Amino acid sequence: MTARSRSIVSRQTGPHEDLSRRVVRALTNPLRKPIAEHTREAFAWARDWLDNRDGAPLILDAGCGVGLSTRRLAEQHPATAVIGVDRSADRLARDHGRLPDNALLVRADLIDFWRLALAEGWRPARHFLLYPNPYPKTAHLKMRWQGHPVLPVILALGGRLELRSNWRLYVEEFALAVTQATGVAAAAAPFTPGEACLTPFEQKYHASGQALWRLVVELPHDPGLVPGDPQPGVGEGK
Ligand SMILES: C[S@@+](CC[C@H](N)C(=O)[O-])C[C@H]1O[C@@H](n2cnc3c(N)ncnc32)[C@H](O)[C@@H]1O
């Protein structure tokens, strides 16, 4: 990682004008994408692992990249069970030493993994979205988590949800979407990492002198946020 990471460049100067409409759409139109078999298998593996953690509170590290944050969270919170999820086999395969016993890295698509987790009744105590891909092009709002049809599922899981980004607008948009969808007040706040950064992206942005932003919000577990059947495809054996 170099200390010359570029700041986000976007034509957007404020929250996307379509954000509110996208959130309404996510809250009213069921997400019909079929769940991939490999994520179903990965989830079953994670569920079995979690079932053997004696009811330890769950921390989800969504989009964990190489899994450093998963390791660090597990070390910081030894009485919890920390599951890091990423779709990149390449990132997950990088060797960062032995995983703590209370940590698990899973290769899966979050869009499916989150839905399976909600259907299974998971209630993460904490849920991290650390430096998600920003998709700064205006046309890519629907790929940001706040503009994505899976947003209600992320929120419905509940717990202490923490988003971090080097793009202030991403966090501001996410805050607007959280409040619109749940009625819970949320705001972006500047953030300075302590001595040890939690993730490689945090490290490189911080070392480049970029401002970092975060949102922390406590949400109720509320599967009713998800439109239609909150368990698409579950039990169909596909
Ligand atoms: C910008 S990187 C940040 C990684 C890590 N959190 C960090 O801060 O170093 C975003 C990560 O999200 C993962 N990701 C993006 N969309 C995903 C999805 N639908 N399912 C699983 N992982 C996803 C990418 O593979 C990538 O590792």
TrEMBL record:
One of its GO terms (cellular component) is tRNA methyltransferase complex. Its EC number is 2.1.1.33. It catalyses: guanosine(46) in tRNA + S-adenosyl-L-methionine = N(7)-methylguanosine(46) in tRNA + S-adenosyl-L-homocysteine. The keyword RNA-binding does not apply. PROSITE patterns: SAM_MT_TRMB. One of its GO terms (molecular function) is tRNA (guanine(46)-N7)-methyltransferase activity. Pfam families: Methyltransf_4. It is an enzyme of class 2 (transferase). The keyword S-adenosyl-L-methionine applies. Keywords: Methyltransferase, S-adenosyl-L-methionine, Transferase, tRNA processing. It comes from the Bacteria. Catalyzes the formation of N(7)-methylguanine at position 46 (m7G46) in tRNA. This is tRNA (guanine(46)-N(7))-methyltransferase.
